[in-house]
């Protein structure tokens, strides 16, 4: 058969996409990825060798300590400052509050109590009908077992509803604080 002169071109019915060749950007990204992989593998290998060296040093030191007969008794850290602070923070709060309540009586009203566990201090703000009642409260605080060196820091006379009262501030210490 002879092709016709005005015949249409043959139809290409290829519905699959043709494959493109990779460009230079793709090759550059591949090269950068391979360099990053090599760097990570080198770092992992050097870390592995470092750990092996440290394990060898520890094994050698253990062998030396066994050979010299060094004592493996635990070290006493209780004289350190950490345990001193921990002892101050581990306060007998039940005893402190019980001493405050025992000394209070019926004449003194406590308005505010602030504790400083690090220094072992206690700041007390209260009201009493007379200055003598405030002083006797301080004496009763000092006579209790937990609190010590209770002092009256300041006082002021106030008029509360036609009744004159004494508002006072006191401080006390407990434990091994000041």
Task: Count the domains.
Answer: 2
Q: Kindly identify the CATH topology of the largest domain.
A: Gyrase A, domain 2
Instruction: Report the total helices.
Output: 4
Order of helices and strands: HHHEEHEE
Helix content: 40-55%
Biggest β-sheet strands, sense, barrel = 4 strands, antiparallel
Distance between the termini: 120 Å
Protein model, in words:
The chain is 44% helix and 24% strand. It is built from four helices and four strands. The chain has a four-stranded antiparallel beta sheet with strand order 1-2-4-3. Strand 1 and strand 2 form a beta hairpin. Helix 3 runs antiparallel to helix 4 (131-143). It starts with 23 loop residues before the first helix and ends with a strand. The model has no long low-confidence stretch (mean pLDDT 81).
């Amino acid at each position: 058969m002879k092709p016709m002169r005005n015949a249409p071109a043959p139809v290409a019915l290829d519905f699959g996409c043709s494959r493109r060749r990779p460009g230079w950007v793709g090759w550059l990204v591949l090269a950068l990825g391979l360099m990053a992989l090599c760097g990570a593998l080198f770092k992992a290998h050097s870390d592995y060798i470092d750990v092996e060296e440290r394990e060898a040093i520890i094994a050698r030191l253990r062998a030396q300590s066994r050979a010299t007969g060094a004592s493996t008794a635990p070290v006493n850290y209780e004289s350190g400052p950490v345990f001193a602070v921990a002892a101050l923070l581990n306060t007998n709060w039940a005893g402190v509050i019980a001493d405050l309540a025992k000394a209070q009586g019926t004449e003194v009203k406590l308005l505010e109590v602030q504790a400083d566990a690090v220094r072992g201090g206690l700041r007390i703000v209260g009201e009493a009908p007379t200055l003598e009642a405030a002083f006797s409260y301080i004496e009763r605080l000092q006579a209790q077992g937990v609190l010590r060196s209770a002092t009256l820091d300041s006082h002021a006379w106030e008029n509360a509803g036609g009744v004159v009262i004494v508002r006072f501030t006191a401080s006390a210490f407990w434990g091994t604080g000041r």
